[in-house]
Design brief:
Blueprint (H helix, E strand, L loop, with lengths): L1 H21 L6 H118 L2 H21 L15 H11 L22 H17 L1
Helix pairs in contact: 1-2, 1-5, 2-3, 2-5
């Protein structure tokens, strides 16, 4: 800008010299100087107008920059809030899933333990029955080997009845395993729901900033002087 003004001043001086040589006797020097002063004033007015436009652009840029910085601050805060929200909700889901898992495992353990307890009870009864049978068999074998005939005849009936009672004593239960199935539908639905968790922009920001129109060219500044200079040359 300073270079243009210096160049313009040099042109004015050169034109003044040219005008002093080309002016006919009918025109006075005062008329020439008034014309030149008008050109200078017009050129200065154009420059001032351009400077004012540049000032407005700078102010607009400053305002625009400030707005973007505020938005960056808002974005940082939004980032922090969203991250905290994701962590909090995810933690709650993890706790709920863990609680559900613990509860389900407890139910499985109880169910299996009850079914096994029934079988352990039956196994114990069978073992006791076999123990009694073994004792009876041993007693019968001893009686067969060592009892005298009269004694054996006397105890034979009771041995036989005892044997029958041991065979009829144990009632074997036909136990069936009750299958326990895991309802995976809830897990699958939960997985789908988690997969559908997303974020979305509430409002899409669109810049509405407009740059002011600037008409600042070298030809625009030089036009007033160039017109007057050509006029003086034509006289």
């Amino acid at each position: 800008m300073v270079t243009r003004i210096l160049t313009y001043t040099a042109r004015v001086r050169r034109v003044r010299k040219e005008c002093a040589l080309l002016v006919p006797s009918c025109l006075t020097k005062n008329t020439i100087f008034v014309t030149l002063e008008n050109s200078v004033m017009q050129a200065k007015k154009q420059i001032n107008s351009s400077l004012e436009a540049l000032k407005k652009v700078s102010e607009s840029h400053t305002e625009y920059k400030s707005k973007l910085q505020e938005q960056n601050t808002k974005l940082d805060k939004m980032h922090e809030v969203l991250m905290q929200g994701i962590d909090e909700h995810s933690s709650k889901l993890v706790v709920k899933v863990k609680q559900s898992s613990t509860k389900l495992k407890s139910l499985v353990e109880d169910n299996v333990a009850k079914q096994k307890a029934k079988r352990e009870e039956q196994i114990a009864l069978v073992d006791k029955s076999e123990e009694l049978k073994a004792e009876h068999v041993l007693y019968c074998q001893q009686a067969l080997s060592f009892a005298r005939d009269v004694e054996f005849i006397e105890m034979a009936k009771s041995l036989e009845n005892k044997g029958k009672s041991l065979m009829e004593d144990l009632k074997v239960l036909d136990l069936q395993v009750h299958d326990v199935l895991l309802d995976t539908d809830a897990y699958e639905n939960l997985e789908k729901s988690i997969g559908q968790i997303s974020i979305h922009e509430a409002d899409s920001w669109k810049p509405s900033y407009g740059y002011p129109s600037i008409q600042l060219t070298q030809s625009a500044v030089a036009t007033p002087m160039s017109l007057h200079a050509s006029r003086f040359r034509s006289l």
